[in-house]
Amino acid sequence: MITISKEYVVDILKGGQEPAAYCESGDTAVFETKDCYDDDDITEENPYGNHPDGLENPATGPLYVQGAEPGDVLKVEIGKIRLRGYGIMRTSVTDGAFHYLYQEKTARRFYFETNPDTGREGFWFDEKLWLDCDTMIGVIGTAAEGDGVLTITPGVHGGNMDCNRITEGSVLYLPVHVPGALLSMGDLHARMGDGEVMICGLETGGTVEVRVTVLKGGEPAEAGVLWEALPLLVSGKQVMTIQSAESLDEAAAMAAQKMQRLTAKLTRLDDVNSGMLMSLLGNLVICQIVNPLKTVRCEFPLDVLAAYGGQLP
Ligand code: CA
Ligand code: CA
């Protein structure tokens, strides 16, 4: 099995980067990730950190997938995610919905343990409240087009989407813009509500196992149907478009429009009827409101696609 150490980190997703590892389509790889504060630069005692020039939201990688060419789609099946023993959160005095409440930055660390009653991993928020972990990947993406995109920003290449449905058992489809795709990931959250409203999730590090498969591009090949809808996620019983823009209004419209086009193609319904189904069954959900672009997902039931013979590759 290929393992990529967290020594191999980038803060931008772009073509031309030296690969941390190479694999074949269909291979499984494990990414060891740092937390978003460049691993432990933030502590409760020192919420400002020791290294102001440290990496912001570092992502481990990139992984070069042999055979991936521009126009293809990279299918990323997310397997086991293992967390290190603790996570950390920090307030912001400048960003997020509550910045006006805080005069200084404050950090809290939470230690994970197994709940003896349920067997689930989680943590005590305080003496009254236990919370289960519901682990997600904040940053995951292929190389973006052109000069690339910093790992603090989301986009069509994926990146800092902060979508809490990108988790164990989900399948993410990403565009291939450069040879090898160059997949990187990081910014694990032990849990995070939709919106990431304060500024962060429960930030942590760990390992993520993924299987990567290249879907060859171009109509009528498999990737052609997906291309316009990327990044696309299958999580639980839903398929989701994940779109990012300057405003939530724009991101919401883009997510809904891309899902309508995808479902119309897969179900062969016309625009009137696929539009009606979107309005009956599609759910717009805010992923995050705190990154340089805001992210919204549109969820649609997989079993409705299946009723019309629509399948994802
Ligand atoms: Ca993030
Ligand atoms: Ca984060």
N-to-C SSE string, H for helix and E for strand: EEEEEEEEEEEEEEEEEEEEHEEHHEEH
Number of DSSP helical runs: 4
SS elements, strand count: 24
Ions, cofactors and other bound molecules: calcium ion
Helix/strand-derived category reads: mainly beta
Helical fraction: 10-25%
The Rg value, from CA coordinates, equals 19 Å
Distance between termini? 24 Å
Question: How would you describe what is shown here?
Answer:
By secondary structure, this protein is mainly beta. Helix content is 13%, strand content 38%. The protein is globular and about 60 Å long. The mean pLDDT is 96.
What is the compact description of this entry?
With 313 residues, the chain is mostly beta strands.
SSE layout and pairings?
Blueprint: E1 2-4, E2 9-10, E3 12-13, E4 21-23, E5 28-33, E6 59-65, E7 73-83, E8 86-90, E9 107-111, E10 113-114, E11 121-126, E12 129-132, E13 136-141, E14 149-150, E15 154-155, E16 158-160, E17 171-175, E18 183-189, E19 203-204, E20 206-215, H1 222-226, E21 232-235, E22 238-245, H2 248-267, H3 271-281, E23 283-288, E24 294-301, H4 302-307
Parallel strand pairs: 1-5, 4-6
Antiparallel strand pairs: 2-6, 3-14, 5-20, 6-18, 7-17, 7-20, 8-9, 10-11, 11-12, 13-16, 13-18, 15-16, 17-21, 18-19, 21-22, 22-24, 23-24
Main attributes of the structure:
single chain, 8-stranded mixed beta sheet, mainly beta, binds calcium ion, 313 residues, globular
